[in-house]
Amino acid sequence: MNTLPQTEPVVHLGVDVAKSELVIDLMGPVRTFPNHPKGIAALLQAAAKTAPAIHLVCEATAGYERPLADAAVLAGIPVSIVPP
To answer: Which residues, in sequence order, are bridge partners of residue 82?
Structure first.
């Protein structure tokens, strides 16, 4: 009998996007990061520590979500942009 390899469950992590900040709930502590390259890098690093497999879900916010989405894709982290 063939069995599929067991994979880690995916944690969908919602990101509240604003012009100047990004807010996530890391399964308990709520963290705020500046919405600029260093803040985005810190958010992605913190998110990666949350679970082995994550998927970011961002609200579409007048383009303020684009830098985060682009950085996530470059880091190999799945990301979805959904209507607010």
So the answer is: 59
Which CATH number among 3.40.50.1100, 3.30.420.60, 2.40.50.140, 3.40.50.720 corresponds to the domain 11-82?
A: 3.30.420.60
- How far is residue 22's CA from residue 47's CA, in Å, rounded to a whole number? 12
> Tokens 């067991």 correspond to what residue?
6
The beta strand positions in the chain, using DSSP E, are 11-17, 21-25, 30-34, 54-59, 79-82
19-51 pLDDT per residue, tens:
999 999 877 889 999 999 999 999 999 988 888
pTM for the structure as a whole: 0.85
